[in-house]
Design goal:
The protein is mainly alpha-helical and 249 residues long. It contains five helices and no strands. Pfam families: IQ.
């Protein structure tokens, strides 16, 4: 027979079990504390035994319920684990399908990717050539512009040098001509002064000669008159008078 049955269980064990399960009987035993006589009467009519048996069955059923709930929770946990594993499996399957799809798409797109890569490499090569040609063209343009600028600057310097040389030559020529003209002017002025001096001298000589001549003529006239008077008076001869007049002149 079962250990928990009423035939093999003592009242003390029943009370202890009821007290452990916190049953109404345990609370009643604690509160009332019946005497042995009352307890014997309860044991004789069997009411306490039936109640204790019901409480034990209730405790067994609760324990069974707890075990079933624990098993149910374990089953639910297993179901959750299975769901998780199933989800992981489905996820792995989906990943495998995705990988297969990517592989298939990769195999389908591989020629296109190769052509695209070749096109990109060709484009990069063309771009490098374009950049190289642009750099060469820019270098040549810089050299050409630099040479043109240098030639233009040299021509400008040559023009400025020629202009300055022409201006210098013109200034020198003007100064030389001015000096020559000044010399000519001075020489002409000197000649004019000389001529003027000569003319003055000539005029003076002419005037003096004229005056002397007039004086001589007057003197000769006077002497002739005097000679006439002297000849008349028996004076000096005409030759002495002439010599005297020459000495006077």
């Amino acid at each position: 027979m079962d250990v928990g049955s009423p035939s093999c269980a003592s009242p003390d064990s029943f009370l202890r079990d009821a007290r452990l399960f916190n049953s109404d009987l345990g609370r009643h035993y604690v509160k009332c504390n019946f005497s042995n006589r009352l307890a014997g009467r309860f044991y004789q009519n069997g009411s306490l035994e039936r109640h204790t048996f019901r409480m034990i069955r209730l405790a067994e059923m609760q324990e069974r319920k707890r075990q079933l709930e624990e098993e149910l929770r374990m089953e639910e946990r297993r179901v959750e684990l299975l769901k998780e594993r199933l989800g992981e499996t489905e996820k792995m399957r989906d990943n495998a399908h995705d990988l297969i799809g990517r592989i298939v798409r990769g195999l389908a797109l591989f020629p296109a990717s190769v052509r695209r890569r070749q096109a990109m490499e060709s484009f990069r090569a063309m771009r490098r050539k374009f950049h190289a040609r642009s750099a060469i063209a820019k270098f040549l343009q810089r050299r050409y512009r630099g040479r043109t600028s240098r030639v233009y600057a040299a021509s400008r310097r040559e023009l400025l040098r020629r202009k300055r040389r022409d201006e210098s030559v013109t200034a020198i020529q003007a100064n030389v001509r001015m000096m020559i003209q000044r010399r000519r002017y001075l020489s002409k002025k000197e000649m004019r002064l000389i001529n003027q001096s000569a003319a003055v001298i000539l005029i003076q000589a002419t005037v003096r000669g004229t005056n002397k001549r007039q004086m001589y003529q007057a003197e000769m006239k006077r002497q002739s008159e005097a000679a006439g008077i002297l000849s008349e008076c028996g004076g000096v001869t005409r030759q002495g008078l002439r010599q005297r007049s020459y000495e006077t002149i």
